Amino acid sequence: MRKSNDVRLKITDFLSSRGISVTGTSSVGPLPGVPERFTPQVLLRDARSVICYGLPIPRGIVLAARDGLDLYWRFCNMAYRSLDAISNQLCTMLEEEGASAVPVYACFPWKLVKREFWGVLPLVYWAEQAGLGRLAKCGLLVSPDYGTRLLLGATVTTLDLKPTGKLEGDPCPPGCFDCVQVCPVHAIEKTGKVDHNLCLRYSTSNPLVAHLARDSDTKEHFSFETLLNTAGVDDHSSYSCFECLRACPLNQRFSSRTG
Fold it and tell me: What mean pLDDT is predicted for residues 233-244?
């Protein structure tokens, strides 16, 4: 137990030293609505814990009077790289403690299952289990301090770490359907069901992937998933919509961490 507590403290100090203050831990296990192929045990044999962490998007970007979408796209690309580097470094640190660990990257690679997009581990579900927030109607994680302005990363490890616990309650304000009403493609239902395929196809722009997908020779030799994960990664794709973030009243308040 003492070694486990020592390692947990090292993890917290490690993440804090890299500017990450939103963290939590979940035990592994099946989750409702998540296919078995996207569970931690499939990713890492003998997995025991998922360490989740988040990096907040500046409130001013979401509320910017102009160029907010361009700023959002650029911030996300840089933040994804930072989160991915932190995940890599955390894995190295954990393996120096005698464990095995696998990074779960903030965005790519994506997997396509029945025309639905999945990450290798669906981060919002595991971050909810780890107590970073609760899922909102729009399908994004609501953090108590940052609303839906949180980009996520994670590490799966064989270490048996004490779970931080899932938050309780509905994160959305009573009777609020702002994200539902503002969605240009009606991808969000009032019940909270989200058509992620429709959302991603509308909200992400990638001229290079679109060009390659029209080429018959390219399509013959490479799957769409391969094209997406090579031509779409990093700065080769941009965002064309973040209306649900702009509309959410939880993103317009100041964080309690500001004092």
Answer: 84
